[in-house]
Specification:
Elements (H helix, E strand, L loop, with lengths): L4 E5 L3 E4 L4 E3 L10 E3 L10 E2 L18 E4 L9 E5 L4 E3 L9 E4 L8 E3 L10 H9 L31 E2 L24 E5 L4 E2 L6 E2 L6 E5 L21 E2 L8 E5 L3
Parallel strand pairs: 3-4, 5-6
Antiparallel strand pairs: 1-2, 2-3, 6-7, 7-8, 9-17, 10-17, 11-16, 12-15, 13-14
Length: 260
């Protein structure tokens, strides 16, 4: 059957016999109840001021499927489009929990994202201050400059700054290795001395009277029991220069989401 169209306002609103409504079009899509078309205009949603995601205010109750543009920056809601699921509101434009961390090449705060540069919490707007405090930042935002991010262990505090890019090795950091050794047996040697026989003689070097060894003169050797080793010590040649433990990295800025 050929469809008949009834024009309520020529070229503005068209209602077909099938019940579709077209605004700006005379042929609304058959799968839609409403089609709005314009080359230079948009749809203006209802505008309300929500108080928080758990409260229906300014509605009298939560209604599943309602969409509104929220004008308020209050508690855990910020300006933007919100939808209601029957029990609470959720933002349509983003789904970032407050406190979400992100890396970016952006150079400054943008769209609810704040650069982690160590700034004072008091420099932020009132609503953003409240969200920062709720995350545990009472004086300053953390300063992420020249730092890598890691997850916390059991004892660490979220947002704490610690760690170093370099480490200087101390003796306890060295491997537990004992180096042993000895000189070669080339050290096995004897000494030659002369027995002057009976009597005494004067030492030409010191002027002292040398003792008599025995009554037989001659040249003799000490025994070979003089074989021995020597203890060695040497410098490592080091200068205690710190070891750089920073891995290869890509430079970005770090932001935290606190809303508007």
């Amino acid at each position: 059957m050929k469809k008949k169209l009834f024009y309520i306002i020529p070229t503005l609103i068209t209602i077909s016999i099938q019940g579709q409504v077209g605004i700006g079009t005379s042929t609304p899509n058959s799968n839609s109840i409403l089609e709005v078309t314009s080359a230079n205009k948009g749809i203006l949603l209802m505008r309300n001021s929500l108080t928080n995601t758990g409260s229906p205010i300014p509605l009298s109750a939560h209604v599943k499927g309602i969409i509104t543009y929220n004008l308020a920056n209050s508690n855990n809601v910020s300006e933007g489009i919100y939808q209601n699921n029957g029990t609470s509101w959720s933002a349509v434009s983003h789904d970032y929990p407050y406190g979400t961390i992100s890396n970016s090449f952006a150079a400054a705060d943008n769209k609810g994202w704040y650069l982690l540069d160590g700034r004072a919490i008091s420099s932020l707007s009132t609503n953003v201050q409240a969200r920062a405090v709720s995350l545990g930042f009472t004086a300053n935002l953390p300063n992420a400059n020249d730092r890598l991010l890691k997850t916390k262990d059991i004892s660490e505090t979220l947002g704490s700054l610690t760690g170093n890019a370099t480490i200087a090795l101390a003796q306890p950091n060295l491997p537990n290795v004992i180096f042993t050794g000895s000189t070669t047996t080339d050290g096995n040697h004897i000494h030659t001395y002369t027995d002057r026989g009976s009597g005494a003689s004067v030492n030409s070097g010191s002027g002292a009277t040398n003792p008599v060894a025995d009554d037989t003169s001659g040249t003799y050797n000490t025994v070979a029991a003089g074989a021995h080793t020597h203890t060695l010590s040497f410098s490592s040649g080091g200068t205690s220069q710190p070891v750089n433990i920073t891995p290869s990295y890509l430079v970005t800025n770090t932001f935290i989401y606190l809303g508007n």
